[in-house]
Amino acid sequence: MKRILLLVALAAVAFAGCLEREPAPTEEEVRGMMAEAVEDLESYRFEIEMDQTVEYRNFSGEGSLEGERISLRWRGEINLTGFSSMEKIESRRTTLAGDRTADDAVEVYFLKNTRYQRMGGEWIGLLEPDPAFRMEKTDQLAHMMEMIDRGEVAVEGTDRVDGERVWSLKVAPDEDTAFGIMLGQISSIDPRIPLLIEMDRLFERGSELEWTVLVSEETGLPVESRISAVYSAGPGILRMPPEAAGGMEIVIETLEVRRFGGYGEPVVVLLPEEARSAPVLPPDLPEGEGFPEP
Prior knowledge:
about 290 residues, alpha+beta, twelve-stranded mixed sheet, globular
């Protein structure tokens, strides 16, 4: 019996050894794996969820707000080789007191050389002189890869997303990228807020940012990006004398999650019936410059 138990134990150890995973890749290996995976990518789908809260602390006076919550849901699909894409964006703004809510929705379709957009109930078309440039602006994955390339990457371990094994990467963006993320997140709440804040000082003294990216072990393609940020602007950061600011403070918290998938799957963009009869406007081109043939 002892001999049998010993054999079983040895077999278990040997089996466990077979299950040992290879060591985590280096930063250079991860970068190379991702770059190779997206190089010849033809299509993909994405979803973006962004939830923000802004609080105006100790503000007083007529029309003062305590703050609001903003929820944004953005999904799209893009055919990089067929120069076509679809995006649907829904947002909701709610006061912290919950007494007022405002909803907004935008749809954007791009086919051949025309962008169709619905805001509210109205559709409009716009001829695009450079379809490739339009696709570059729509390509959310390429934008994220550019930001990662400019920063530092550390492999923190493995995880699972919908049963798929992924590498968990911690990304430290360079200063220009981190500043751009901060400005974009704050401006999305209200473009007037940066006018109230010394943005350089906020970046130096009042910002916290964490960024995690999950990458498929099998394909090397990004699966998810998660950015959490907190920005706190008080005396010395608000655009007013410290003695006037008193205990006033603007605090902004953001969680932005981007999910990518459907890599290489067929993407056929179909224009809604209502958009087909929308007026199509020519682009505002410099004098003497023609519009390319579709």
